[in-house]
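#dry-run=false #mode=assembly
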Amino acid sequence: NAGVTQTPKFQVLKTGQSMTLQCAQDMNHNSMYWYRQDPGMGLRLIYYSASEGTTDKGEVPNGYNVSRLNKREFSLRLESAAPSQTSVYFCAIRGGGRSYNEQFFGPGTRLTVL
Amino acid sequence: RKEVEQDPGPFNVPEGATVAFNCTYSNSASQSFFWYRQDCRKEPKLLMSVYSSGNEDGRFTAQLNRASQYISLLIRDSKLSDSATYLCVVRGYGQNFVFGPGTRLSVLP
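#status=ok
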């Protein structure tokens, strides 16, 4: 039971390149989230998905797109990377039942855009 | 004003010390409150939820003051292993989670 997995763990891009960050969960929960974490800023919500097939913008969606093709996977795409997107990206799910208010995070992707 | 604000830190304390973290939130409609712990270069993990009546989990005590929109976390008898960044998190009914910037704690031998 891996919980929430993310790939890749590290990535270096040049300005203008594109890439997709992958997130998968084996906990069978509906809600999934993408955050970015920058020094002194805390985690900021990029996009979230309340259920399969639905996505909504968070606080900082510009420059990103997401895809929730099935319950298990939620991907984040950078179409044309910019240095301002250098950050640590975390995928998270929200638990169910007694863990309804708890978020479980993946290990993160450290992205550098040159 | 940020929606969730925390002590800027860092806090450097000796082993065995008691340390308190403060957090304020601006949205009076917030319903749920949490403290998360994040180790260096790791993902955040839930430390404890915060209830209106206050709650304790071993050496950790969390308090909530809805009137003042203030949350606190007290750590007694600090251990080296408590060194981490502590994130204050709030959530409104049906809303998303809002994270504070975190307060870093270093417990020194």
